[in-house]
Amino acid sequence: MSDKVRSIPRPLVKTNQWVIVISAVLTLIFAEGWFLIIPLLAGLSGIVFKYNPIMNIAKFFLKKKPEEYIPEDWEQQQFNQKIAVFCLAGGFISFLLGWNIAGYVFTIMVAAAAFVAILGFCIGCFIHYQWKMYQYKRAN
Question: What's the CA gap between 136 and 140, in Å, rounded?
């Protein structure tokens, strides 16, 4: 068993969060769900193929070695990405179906969560922690 913990440099996580926020804001300003497709496809790729193109492009702009940045837990970020993809997909599909209110709700939720994460509080991390505590309590 390996003792190495998988991690992602914080600037790459922040870049991904900013792309989500900017896409969501553009969606809200222009009432056009197609702006959500970029973070949605990048997030799906990250979950399914373990390759997030946004983060991989952002790697080229790092000024230090990746391991010199504050690390973000890879497993936690995968959990957060699943929540973001769910909301992005919900917003995108809702807009495609003409369910604009649902589209706005999903888009505002994902934008708010990503922006709050940029500011320092990770809603996905809080949910993940509560879920793990529930599982632990149920098992013991």
Answer: 6
Distances, alpha carbon 17 to alpha carbons 4, 41, 74, 101, in Å: 25, 14, 15, 23
- Distance (Å) of CA 129 to CA 67, 122, 133: 25, 11, 6
Number of C-beta neighbours around residue 56 at 10 A: 13
What integer pLDDT is reported at residue 3 of this predicted model? Answer: 62
With contact defined as beta carbons under 8 Å apart, do 107 and 25 qualify? no
DSSP assignment string, 88-105: HHHHHHHHHTT-HHHHHH
Residue showing tokens 């991904």: 16
For 55-81, what is the mean pLDDT? Answer: 95
Average pLDDT over residues 52-74: 96
